[in-house]
Amino acid sequence: MNSLYKPDFLIIGAGIVGLTVALQLKKQFPDSEIIIIEKEKKLGVHASGRNSGVLHAGFYYSANSLKAKLCRDGNYFWREYCLEKKLKINQCGKLVVARNESELKGLDELYRRGQENSVKLELISENQAKEIEPSIFTFEKALYSPTTSTIDPNEILRSVSQDVINQNIKIIYNNKFLNTKKNIISTEAGKYDPGYLINAAGLYADVIAKKYGFSKNTKILPFKGLYLYEKKKCLKLRTNVYPVPDLRNPFLGVHLTVTVDNKAVIGPTAIPAFWRENYVGLDNFNLKEFLEVISLESKLFAYNNFGFRNLALSELKKYSKNKLTKLAGSLLNNKNLSSFTSWGKTGIRAQLIDIKNKKLEMDFKFEGDEKSFHVLNAVSPAFTCAEPFSKLIVKNIKSKLN
Length: 402
What we know:
The chain has a domain at about 1-55 and about 150-215 and about 360-400: FAD/NAD(P)-binding domain (3-Layer(bba) Sandwich). Helices cover about 30% and strands about 25% of the residues. The chain contains ten helices and 25 strands. The strands form six sheets. It has a six-stranded mixed β-sheet with strand order 10-3-2-14-25-24. Strands 1-13-12-11 form a four-stranded mixed β-sheet, with no helix packed on it. The longest helix is centred in the first third of the chain and has 20 residues, at about 65-85.
């Protein structure tokens, strides 16, 4: 491609956010030319294809957050989308259990947030919880979320990408963003002079944003999510089982997920990664990123901002299968989890951190102007929220173009 392409909108990243934003742009600007560039050979190589597949209900988040406002609607949208398109969905619900008396306050707080967010949620007794899932262990009470479901994220990505193509929106693979100069964007496959740029680049969103003068005080810190699968299907769970999380950080703790195929999965972890695409061994090793990430993590470890030292030390232990099965086992009553021996596909959470105040960004975050828009923090439950989130993004873009 030697020509200079001039689409009305250029989107970087064909993850679930990039794809849904493209569809919303087409609705708002039906005559526009939209191109999505994707650095990988196919869909779902990174976060959108490596998550747990849980459609969250929306009760974890404080009422004033974007996550709270978007999650409930996103949950409903994807459930209806899967049913309409005849895609896999397991409407198995979720139990959040308390492992001891001290966790009851956390359970009550989650229930309060669910009420504030108008999420269908039930605070139930131990006996009621065991009627839903006989194998669980909980102290006195539990929360039941009937609208939590699991889907196959890669199946949805394929379906949404076809929706995109049906709208005459181009997706160009093997086309990595390289640089920008005077609004001309260089990629591995040519150059673009877009009317407007949308950066939905996930793990590299901050790097691209800085080239446009954004993300000045923020940086993406990668966290590794490990999953552990059964070698043989022994544990027959009826529902997802979660612990009461530490609400001071955005991670939900090691839990048990029931997949669309009714298989049980333990995970994910939130282990600090050492470079952005630090999935397996030394694959995708980047020395510059390694030095930058280690430097930042060392400072956070030393100052122990938001309890990072304790988090890092506890998470690093989860490289052990025994540790993971022990944590998952604390959610169940006398269940042997020795059948969980196979590592699944590792995910990386592109978690934004405020480097000025040394704290994790707990909510979705974006920045932009009349030329470009940058989705900086699109972490869990971003997949669940993607459709209403894309509407919000396009609304913001329209306001900047007017």
